[in-house]
Request: fold
Amino acid sequence: MLETPLRRIALGPATVTVTRRDDGSILLNSTEVLGPYPQRFSERLVHWAQIAPDRVFLAQRDAAGDWCKLTYGEAGARVRAIAQALLDRELSVDRPVTILSGNDIEHALLALAAMHVGVPYAPISPAYSLLSTDHGRLKYIMDLLNPGLVFAANGDPFARAIDAAVPQSVECVFTGNATPLRRATPFAALETATPGVELDRVHGAVGRDDVAKILFTSGSTGQPKGVINTHRMLCHNQQMILQSLPYYGEVPPVLVDWLPWHHTAGGNNDFGLIVYNGGTMYIDDGRPQPGLIEPTVRNLREIATTAYISVPRGFEALLPYLQDDSALRAKFFSRLGFLFYAGAALSQPVWKAYDELALRTCGERITWMAGLGSTETAPFAMCTNRGARRASEIGLPPSGVELKLFPVEGKLEARFRGPSITPGYWRQPELTRAAFDDEGFYRMGDALRFVDPDDPQQGLEFDGRIAEDFKLATATWVRVGELRLKCVAAGVPFVQDVVIAGHGRDDIAVLVFPNVAACRKLCPELPETATAGAILGHAAVRAWFQALFDRLGREATGSSNRIVRAMLLEYPPDLDHGEVTDKGSINQRAVLERRAALVEELYAARPSPRLICTDFKESTR
Reply:
């Protein structure tokens, strides 16, 4: 496949210096010097509003399904008016702006206006308002932030959460359908303010180290942490991206994008590269889930993107539509520069399928890229900007950030230092101190390894999460990340995710979160009203999973990767109890702790009927 034609785009250099130290750590630094970048994030909006006022900045579907478009010129004027309204309310670092709803034009305008005058803003996961039953995380965040203004696009669905978590004294702003539970301000009222001389003075005083936004981690290890994002971080990170992928500077990016702005990937990387490079974002209201991907497909039938950025599940969900629809394929690949995934590993079969579709459609492959980052790294910290050769690769650090590989329990932990790294967590100094080592490197918690130990320039690949790995009773290490990925890949499409158990035990066992909708296709004779329990207990479903774990058992090389028992879970992971983050990542530790009784059932001396036991061996416990 590598000999086939590849669509060429402008890419930056990817070479590093390597310093090996006596303590076993390895330092990697790009050989390229980072160029200048703005002092304030909104400077790029002002720039594009002046030189390309008629270019479309953002577009979203209206109630009739038509595209509602916002140009750079319009955005610049509206941001100034809203920024003046925020100044009139005396909002500040002590009384920031909080946004509860998801991606839309008003969200973008309010966020940019706040940053324009040095008022931090915090976009909060809508799941904390809409999916939670106790609003515990939202209450915690509100107490931490002390917001001066709270915005939600539509008051009705957020009414209960606002009543539970937002003090009555805080002004609430809605685009429509204000909640009857309190006095509210229409969003349009913010735009009636007249910008004055004071606005320009305040904007000019905003410094690089002032807080631009506060992004909350998904709380996979306890309560969400407010990650401080400064203007320096955001601007420095976008310059790093541009020098790694100069294609963005040659071809203003056009994205159809669903990634949420309360996450660093969507809100910093994707939204940021649009603002920084004068691009156009079509806000996608689809999601990579059964029954929710169709809006994405519709949008991609209409809009030819210059890059497609998603998580692996996004590529998996889109794939069958591309395979079945030649017109969609033609539009999708027509001016596509590259495909970029992050957040998890992409399966090699999906990678290969996209390569084959591209060759069939346009006669050339499209470059695959991957990277590594986190909320604390803004997020761009590593990238395969010469093109990845296999799905596990994450590349090398770009110019502007230093990578330290530090030996921890037989692995090399990734640690980062540089201007794009957060200074810490909002009003949580103890967490800030714990996040950095004695040289000021942020401890990522991810393990990396060289693709070729003899040639570091070939880049690095992901080697699991340090904190998730554990030892069996025999002192044998279990590499949880590797084993989990193998199980999920082997179980497509019937396995949604797995949780690995076995700490201090003789053997490995797993809790399986199945894709119940896919499993249903194995037993079509069941009625439409069949419960998840009935589906998962069906003989055909159990036979499929039995064959899966028997095969994985035969492929295992020893106790470190041999699964002895498995249980299919009827109930999905629970957001309120921290079992799953709002972006869908499983918190292994939380699941094991909350479902401790099920773990004990996995290891019972006499297996219960609902367990799947491999035919390789029966464990001694």
